[in-house]
Each structure stands twice: as structure tokens, then as C-alpha cells.
Specification:
By secondary structure, the chain is α/β, with parallel strands linked by helices. Helix content is about 35%, strand content about 20%. The chain has eleven helices and 13 strands. It is flat, with a radius of gyration of 24 Å.
Length: about 350
């Protein structure tokens, strides 16, 4: 008899809609929906998606306690043997919801769970000790690669089979230490690694350390009245129509736009391209995210000498650290070349 599996997905992967439908409350549907159909194929005859739970990303984020209990009750009705959440790729709110659902269901119902996320998704650090999280690509382009691995890891748990090391199975390290017998002592293994390092040969450390990007702050402006100040935003404010087609999530680019002679931006001239927050208020008055009107007022009052009439914009929603670092370096270099003294960076 096939194992019974419940699948948790958000409003987008359920085909209901994007950000405009992100507030829908949890609902349950019989059988597989969206990516759940491919998940069924990956299970083969060993398991079946008997039900799908759908919840809007914003609803979950804004009502965590309530949503958690509502989803738990919906899951219980299917009497599942296991649960799959996602994959969420690099969508932060979705990843957080997937991790929370796996943790809640796993602890409450004592059934195995698995999710899938990009390594930089905030849900990874929050929930990797609570559930197995398969490492995925940063977007849904990686769906076909992620689902078979997720299915295999869940099936192994359901059948009581031991899971191997993260690099063998494809899940993100959970920070869990497991005792094992090694053929060589620690001293011998350390010397082997040292010799390989000295020879320039590849080796894998047994205890990888996190690497944090430390950027020392520049000294404060001492003469603000004679300074040129620029605006940079990760809130996605772009000229209407989004001429550079900056992605709503996982941005691969940023835009450079003129504000020459502009005293304030408006709903007629600008919009947000950001897909990670409700765009209503930003689209009604883009100055709420990119405060051009306030900067012009400060310029008139003499708080600083000049407002730099070029701004830079991208979308921070799910954007990889590598891309964000590249954007920052390139933008900083351009501002330096344009003799800008200070930058105000706005977010969402």
C-alpha cells in the first residue's frame, strides 16, 4: 500500500495568482496540484499525494500562529504518513512558511517531512535543524531537479532507511553531529589535508566555517552642507513600464535612471517592480520608497549642497548575495566617479 503524503504550496504554485493573491487563507484540495503532479511521478508506486494545502505567502507571514494551526488541522484530515513543503527556491516568505509547516507538522504528528530551498533562503537557517531541506536552484527553473531528490529523501524516511551525508543525499547540512568510526585518526586526516593544501590539491574540510562579509563603514560626512547626496533603493522603484525588466524576485540586474529636473515622482511616472511586498502603497506614491520629494525639500533648505540626479534601483526580494554584492560594488564605483559624497539607501 502506498504511503499517504500531503503537499504544502503557496498561491503562486497552486495557479491562483501572484502577489495580488498572497493574502488568501489556507485551503485544502484533494490530490495533487501544480508541482504535486510531478512529485507523484517521482514517488512512483511507493507514495501518493493524497491532499494539497495552499496558503498565501502574505497571509502566513502576517498571521503565523493562526495560519500554523489552520494548516495543521487541514493536514490532519488527510491522515498522512509524510509531508512535503515546496520547494520554495529563493522566495523568502514561502521558504519561511515551508519550514514552519514542516516543523509544526513533524513535531505534532510525528511524521517525516522534507522541503526544498535555495541555500540563501532565510528559511534554511531558521528550519534546517527541524526538517530535511533539499538544496535547490534559486528559481523554479530547478523544479525538475529538486522534486526527485525531495521524493527520495521522504521515501527513505518513510521506509525507515538511514540517510547518508548531506553531500551524498542532496540536502543542506543540518548542523547535527553524528558519531562514526573513521579509518584514520584525526591527526592523520589533518596532516593529509595540510599536505594537499601545500600542494595546491583539492580537499574538503571536516568542519566548514561560515564566511561573513565584513565591510568597514566609511567615516561620517563632516561638511554635509557642501555634499552631494544620492538615492539608491532595493525597493524596486523604476520608471513606469519597468524598461529594464528587473525581475520581481531574484534580480539579476539593477537600473540606472535620471531624475534631472524632477521634483517628485508619481504614480504616472514610476512604479515598483518588487514582488516581495504589497505594491499598493508604493505604486500610489513611489516617493514612499524612493523619497525624491523629501530630498528636493532638503536640497532647497540647504541641508546638503546638491541632490544627485541619477538614482539606482533593484529588487531585494530573494536576490542572491553574489548578485547583491556585485550590484553594490558597481553602483559604488559609479557614484564615486560622479563625485557623490553620501548615499541614502532605502528598502521596503
Amino acid at each position: 500500500m502506498a504511503f499517504r503524503v500531503v503537499h504544502y504550496i503557496n498561491q503562486f504554485f497552486a495557479g491562483i495568482g501572484g502577489e495580488e493573491k498572497a493574502n488568501i487563507p489556507p485551503e485544502a484540495r484533494e490530490g495533487a496540484v501544480g508541482p504535486g503532479m510531478a512529485l507523484n511521478q517521482a514517488f512512483g508506486s511507493e507514495a501518493e499525494v493524497v491532499g494539497t494545502i495552499i496558503c498565501g505567502d502574505s497571509y502566513f507571514a502576517d498571521n503565523i500562529e493562526k495560519a500554523r494551526q489552520e494548516i495543521l488541522e487541514l493536514v490532519k484530515k488527510f491522515a498522512p504518513d509524510g509531508l512535503v513543503a515546496g520547494p520554495a527556491f529563493n522566495a523568502g516568505r514561502y521558504g519561511t512558511a515551508c519550514g514552519d509547516v514542516c516543523e509544526t507538522v513533524g513535531k505534532t504528528l510525528s511524521i517525516p517531512t522534507v522541503s526544498g530551498m535555495y541555500k540563501e533562503n532565510p528559511g534554511v537557517d531558521m528550519y534546517r535543524k527541524s526538517t530535511y531541506i533539499v538544496e535547490t536552484a534559486d528559481s523554479a527553473r530547478g523544479m525538475k531537479d529538486a522534486l526527485p531528490v525531495m521524493a527520495r529523501i521522504l521515501l527513505k524516511q518513510l521506509k525507515g532507511e538511514p540517510l547518508g551525508r548531506p553531500e551524498e543525499e542532496g540536502y543542506i547540512p543540518r548542523g547535527v553531529r553524528v558519531n562514526f568510526f573513521a579509518e584514520k585518526t584525526g591527526a592523520e586526516r589533518a596532516l593529509d589535508m595540510l599536505v594537499k593544501k601545500l600542494r595546491g590539491e583539492p580537499f574538503t574540510t571536516e568542519y566548514p566555517m561560515p564566511v561573513f562579509d565584513k565591510v568597514p563603514p566609511n567615516p561620517p560626512i563632516t561638511d554635509m552642507k557642501n555634499s552631494t547626496v544620492a538615492l539608491v533603493t532595493s525597493g524596486g522603484i523604476v520608471p513606469r513600464g519597468n524598461p529594464d525588466h528587473i525581475e520581481a524576485s531574484s534580480a539579476s540586474k539593477y537600473g540606472e535612471y535620471s531624475l534631472e529636473g524632477v521634483q517628485a515622482i508619481s504614480a504616472e511616472t514610476h512604479q515598483t517592480a518588487h514582488g516581495g511586498y504589497d505594491p499598493t502603497y508604493a505604486n500610489e506614491d513611489p516617493n514612499r520608497v524612493l523619497p525624491v520629494d523629501a530630498m528636493r525639500e532638503l536640497e532647497k533648505e540647504g541641508v546638503f549642497r546638491k541632490f544627485h540626479e541619477t538614482y539606482y534601483s533593484t529588487v531585494g526580494n530573494g536576490t542572491s548575495v553574489a548578485n547583491a554584492s556585485r550590484f553594490g560594488s558597481e553602483i559604488a564605483q559609479k557614484l564615486k566617479e560622479q563625485n557623490v559624497d553620501a548615499v541614502i539607501v532605502t528598502s521596503t
